Amino acid sequence: MNTFRVQLFFVVTLSFLVTTPDAWSMSDGILITNFFLVKDVMFLAVSISVIERNKALLMAQV
């Protein structure tokens, strides 16, 4: 269940990109974010990996 929470945190972090003023800036003609952290991408990848590896166990619990 914790892996779903990590994915929820990732989505909430992404929502800040849309709702926060001045979250985006241009650098050499490329649109970048001012605060998006790479750790959030890593946490999402780990949570998806855990879910995929334990999919049979998760389905048995439902």
Textual characterization of the structure:
The protein is of the alpha+beta class and 62 residues long. It is 66% helix and 13% strand. It is built from three helices and two strands, in the order H-E-E-H-H. The protein has a two-stranded antiparallel sheet with strand order 1-2. Strand 1 (24-27) and strand 2 form a beta hairpin. The protein is elongated, with a radius of gyration of 16 Å. The chain starts with a helix and ends with a helix.
Brief description of this entry?
Helices cover about 65% and strands about 15% of the residues. With about 60 residues, it is an alpha+beta fold.
Structure keywords:
62 residues; two-stranded antiparallel ribbon; 2 strands; alpha+beta; 3 helices
Q: Based on helices, strands and strand pairing, what is the structural class?
A: alpha+beta
Ranges where pLDDT stays below 50 over 5 or more residues in a row are none
| Overall pLDDT level | 77
Radius of gyration: 16 Å
